[in-house]
C-alpha cells in the first residue's frame, strides 16, 4: 500500500517545512504533506495539479478557470507510508498539516503513516465532504474544514453534505474556513452557518486569491463584514511571503 502524493518537481514528493499560512493556527511552524486527487473541482482551485489531468476524457473533465491541465506522471508520486513518514520527520517539525487535493480520500494510508510519527501533532485541511477513519481521527488535533460555496462551481449536492457538516459543527477540533471572492458570498456563509449550526467563533472567512494584491483588496471588505456578523477572518500568509509556489 502507498500514498499518492503531489509533487514539487517531477518525482519529488510535496513534503516541506513552512509556516501554516491559513486559519486558527496561522503562523505556526509546521511541516506539510500534500496528497494528490480531489473529489471536488473548484474553478479557482490553487492546486489543480492534484486533479486536473491531461488526457481525461472530455465527459469526465471538470472545468478549471485556467484551462491548464497536468500530466499525472509528473504531478503524482507514490510513496510507501514509512518513507513518507521519514521525509516528514526529516523536516524537524513537531506539527504536521495534511493537505491536498482532498487528503481524506487516503485516510487509511495516512493513519498508517502516522504510526511512524507517534509524537507529531496533526492538522488536516479538508473540503468537508468526507470523514477520517477512526484510526486517523484519534490522531487529529485540528480539522480545517473548507466547505465550497456556489462560486466554486461544484454542485451543492456534492460539496455540501448535511450530515458531514453537522458532525464537524459539533466537533470542537473543527474550524470552518470559507473561501470568499465577493461580498455576496458572505450571505451564503451566514445561511450555511444557520442551517448547520456552525459556531461563529470557529468560522473563518478567507479571501480567494493567489497574489498579495488580490488578497489585500478582498480583505478590505471581508474584515468589516466579519466584524458585523461575528465571524473570524484569516489571510493567506504564505502567499504574501512566498507567492503561489509549490512546496511553500
Ligand atoms: N504555508 C502554507 N499554508 C497553508 N495552509 C493551507 C494550505 C493548503 O494548501 O491547504 C497551505 C499551503 O499550501 N502553504
Ligand atoms: S476542494 Fe480543495 S483541492 Fe479540491 S478542487 Fe476545491 S480547492 Fe482544489
Ligand atoms: Mg494552498
Can you give a write-up of this model?
With 248 residues, the chain is of the alpha/beta class. The chain has a domain at 3-175: TIM Barrel (Alpha-Beta Barrel), CATH 3.20.20. Helix content is 31%, strand content 22%. It is built from 9 helices and 11 strands. An 8-stranded mixed β-sheet has the order 3-4-6-7-8-9-10-11. A 3-stranded antiparallel β-sheet has the order 2-1-5. The longest helix has 18 residues, at 212-229. The radius of gyration is 17 Å and the shape is globular. The two termini are 27 Å apart. The model has no long low-confidence stretch (mean pLDDT 97). The chain binds ligand 2KA, iron/sulfur cluster and magnesium ion. Iron/sulfur cluster binds next to loops.
SSE inventory with pairings:
Layout: E1 3-9, E2 12-13, E3 15-19, E4 29-34, H1 72-75, E5 76-79, H2 81-90, E6 95-99, H3 107-115, E7 121-126, H4 134-137, E8 140-145, H5 156-159, H6 162-169, E9 174-180, H7 183-195, E10 203-207, H8 212-229, E11 232-233, H9 237-242
Bound molecules: the ligand Nc1nc2[nH]cc(C(=O)O)c2c(=O)[nH]1, iron/sulfur cluster (SF4) and magnesium ion.
Describe the main β-sheet briefly: 8 strands, mixed
The CATH class name of the domain at 3-175 reads Alpha Beta
SSE string: EEEEHEHEHEHEHHEHEHEH
CA radius of gyration is 17 Å
CATH T-level fold name of the domain at 3-175: TIM Barrel
Adjacency order of strands in the biggest sheet: 3-4-6-7-8-9-10-11
**Average predicted local confidence, pLDDT:** 97
Number of helices: 9
- Oligomeric form: single chain
Low-confidence stretches: none
Bound molecules: the ligand Nc1nc2[nH]cc(C(=O)O)c2c(=O)[nH]1, iron/sulfur cluster, magnesium ion
What structural class results from the helix and strand content? alpha/beta
The percent range for strand residues is 15-25%
What's the architecture of the domain at 3-175 in CATH terms? Answer: Alpha-Beta Barrel
**Number of E strands:** 11
Shape: globular
N-to-C span: 27 Å
State the helicity in percent bands. 25-40%
Amino acid at each position: 500500500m502507498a500514498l499518492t502524493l503531489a509533487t514539487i518537481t517531477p518525482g519529488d514528493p510535496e513534503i516541506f517545512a513552512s509556516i501554516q499560512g491559513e486559519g486558527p493556527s496561522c503562523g505556526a511552524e509546521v511541516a506539510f504533506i500534500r496528497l494528490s486527487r480531489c473529489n471536488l473541482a473548484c474553478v479557482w482551485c490553487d492546486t489543480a495539479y492534484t486533479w486536473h489531468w491531461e488526457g481525461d476524457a472530455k465527459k469526465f473533465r471538470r472545468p478549471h478557470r485556467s484551462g491548464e491541465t497536468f500530466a499525472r506522471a509528473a504531478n503524482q508520486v507514490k510513496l510507501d507510508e514509512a518513507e513518507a513518514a521519514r521525509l516528514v520527520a526529516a523536516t524537524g517539525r513537531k506539527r504536521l498539516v495534511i493537505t491536498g487535493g482532498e487528503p481524506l480520500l487516503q485516510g487509511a494510508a495516512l493513519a498508517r503513516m502516522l504510526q511512524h510519527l507517534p509524537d507529531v501533532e496533526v492538522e488536516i485541511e479538508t473540503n468537508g465532504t468526507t470523514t477520517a477513519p477512526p484510526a486517523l481521527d484519534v490522531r487529529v488535533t485540528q480539522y480545517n474544514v473548507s466547505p465550497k460555496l456556489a462560486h466554486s462551481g461544484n454542485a451543492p449536492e456534492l460539496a455540501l453534505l448535511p450530515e458531514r457538516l453537522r458532525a464537524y459543527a459539533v466537533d470542537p477540533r473543527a474550524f470552518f474556513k470559507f473561501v470568499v471572492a465577493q461580498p455576496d458570498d458572505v450571505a451564503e456563509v451566514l445561511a450555511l452557518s444557520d442551517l448547520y449550526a456552525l459556531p461563529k467563533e470557529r468560522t473563518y472567512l478567507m479571501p480567494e486569491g493567489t497574489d498579495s494584491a488580490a488578497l489585500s483588496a478582498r480583505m478590505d471588505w471581508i474584515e468589516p463584514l466579519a466584524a458585523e456578523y461575528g465571524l473570524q477572518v484569516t489571510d493567506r500568509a504564505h502567499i504574501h511571503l512566498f507567492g503561489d509556489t509549490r512546496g511553500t
